[in-house]
Specification:
about 140 residues, mainly alpha, elongated
Length: about 140
Amino acid sequence: MFSPVSPISRVVAEVVPLLVRYRYEPDESQAAMIAQGWAEQYPAEWVRPAVVETLYQARYKSISVAQVLNLWQRQGRPHPHYSGDFERLVSRSNSERLWSPLPRVASRSPLPLLPATVTEPQYQKLRTLAQVQTVRES
């Protein structure tokens, strides 16, 4: 038989990877202690959304999570501003890549800085504009 997982243990298990991955805390043991403290002091179901909220606000400090939780406690309810898409993006597992590298392209001859012929109309227009600008600056 299995023993039921407490809400606090579940929250700690969900939050610690986020805290470590996004560098809120340098190691898992410190992150686990902090997450457990939050889950004991505030409603446990608010902790993960608070971490995601601070990611959304680009506030990558543990103190920011505590500030968000404190604000939500004063308001009596959580008030996240992020979308479900943002939450899914930041909650991906470490093994998933958020982007894939672009394939290497064989280099071709460098692009010329000057047109093939000096008589091209675009080149002539640009040259005239440059001369007009130079005259105005003088």
